[in-house]
Amino acid sequence: MDPITLLTFFVLSVFVGFEVVSKVSSTLHTPLMSGANAIHGIILVGAIIVAGQAENVGLLIVALIAVLLATVNLVGGFVVTDRMLEMFGGRKQPAKATTEEGAR
Amino acid sequence: MSLLSIEATALLYLVAAVCFILALKGLSSPKSARRGNLIGAFGALVALVTVFLSTELDNLALIIATILVGSAIAAPISRRVAMTQMPQLVALFNGVGGGAAALVAMLELTHVEGIGAVIAVAFTVLVGAVSFSGSVITFAKLQELMPTRPIVFPGGPIVMSLVALASLAAAVWLVISGDPLASYVLLGLGLVLGVLFVLPVGGADVPIVISLLNAFTGLTVAASGLVLGNTLLLVAGTLVGASGTILTRAMASAMGRSVAGILFGAFKGGSTAGSTVASDRPVRSSSAEDVAILLGYAQRVIVVPGYGLAVAQAQHTMAELATTLEAKGIEVVFGIHPVAGRMPGHMNVLLAEANVPYEVLQEMDEVNPQFKTADVALVVGANDVVNPAAKSSPGSPIYGMPILDVASARQVVFLKRSMRPGFAGIENELLFEPQTTLLFGDAKESLTKVLGAVKAL
């Protein structure tokens, strides 16, 4: 893709990024940070592409490490954010019923 | 197996990007937050399916196996981690993302063409490495594997400048030569720089650094999007970079700090160094029964919960005490400092977990005028966020941080573990004031005793 198109994407994304979080209450700072953190786990897509093109074992191992790290970021990020937000939602049922550790 | 055309791939990536924007938008409001996060996860799923269907991939079985292993590690940890330990988990997830981006860029170095792409590789390797090692240090600080205080050593700023210059030189070398060796050197220097960058940041400022490193990781993901020519990575990374920057500034201003002041504050003299030594000045400590009497015969009680409540897992006992007092016709509200706990909004999460109704949780600006009419301010495991030094002593490291105005309540009760200073490592003058009563002990034990005594009144 040509550089100007990529630059266009970049600049527009900066503005969207600024705009979407401009009015957030401090209550939601932590979940928002955590959610944004999960989104950059999408580097997994890049890691998969690189791993799929690795030419030798050494490169493949490094690429698979990247896949592993990115997966942890992506999956862990979304799950922990959901866990935080769960607390805001189901206030009617007791907390024990909504968390798994109560059962284990 | 390229099952998808280039157009279909681009369209599906667009769907994923829109999901991420909606996710961030949703996360900005309490009502839509959870749905927003699920939309984000859905977007990620779309993107993953797309990359598998659109790209010619070798080693497919190994890649899928690795993803399964990664999920099997991350999901249970995230589900079971105590809510009090969540900030460090977020830091860790952020770090591994930065590390992944750095590795992707390094591997892609031999495939890229054009100086722009090599610059993007250099940026990703350096910033990704800083984000990785910096996040690991913040993790260690929050997990208390190492001192939470700012760590400053003689010549620190000079060492840091030298490492920063060397990193820059290595980056230039990489851009000019395209030599993989340069990328290894850059990675190593980046790791060192990340450690040096975070060590001097201490105490309550650590969450802000997590947020900043989060924005850094976003930018590295954007840069690796440039390297790979992948628009989704570019858009998603930039979104996180931009929103993370705004969020970092919002957090810093909630604490009355500037981002630059936090990052470089510890270098400018020893004022933030603080101490962890307990003071031996006289204070008035009392029994749970006395505290129960104060509470039981009050009309308005404002509870100020802090990290001590969280570590003692006392949020449920606290909620029960509030309900018991309310049953006696006493008005109870919770005054939540924006950075109560270890991260902005952390305390709201903890209290929501204990079923404390959202309506009695009041933010600082809302609750501060009410302290004047409150009979008792009950401070549970909080210290820095009620320290009047933030208003009165310009030399203090927390000077300028907005605080909860508990000093204007008629009586102040502190439930504290010991006389040790708080996270910022400074003494609280309020503890020595005549209207202040202290009850020493673990927050949960103290609250249980007070609860029993209130019920017996």
Tell me about this structure.
The complex is a heterodimer of chains A (104) and B (457). Chain A has helices at 3-20, 29-39, 43-52, 57-89, 95-98. Chain A has one domain (25-102). With 104 residues, chain A is mainly α. Residues 90-104 of chain A have low confidence and may be disordered. Chain B has 457 residues and is of the alpha/beta class. Chain B folds into 2 domains: 6-267, no CATH class; 288-456, Rossmann fold (3-Layer(aba) Sandwich). Chain B contains 17 helices and 6 strands. Chain B has a 6-stranded parallel sheet with strand order 3-2-1-4-5-6. In chain B, helix 14 (346-353) links the parallel strand 2 and strand 3 (361-363). In chain B, helix 1 packs parallel to helix 9 (231-254) and helix 5 packs antiparallel against helix 6 (156-177). The longest helix of chain B is centred in the first third of the chain and has 28 residues, at 115-142. The termini of chain B are far apart.
Task: Give a topology summary.
The complex is a heterodimer of chains A (104) and B (457).
Chain A: H1 3-20, H2 29-39, H3 43-52, H4 57-89, H5 95-98
Chain B: H1 6-27, H2 33-54, H3 60-80, H4 86-108, H5 115-142, H6 156-177, H7 180-198, H8 206-228, H9 231-254, H10 259-264, H11 288-296, E1 300-305, H12 307-311, H13 315-327, E2 331-336, H14 346-353, E3 361-363, H15 364-367, E4 376-380, H16 389-392, E5 411-416, E6 436-440, H17 443-456
Parallel strand pairs in B: 1-2, 1-4, 2-3, 4-5, 5-6
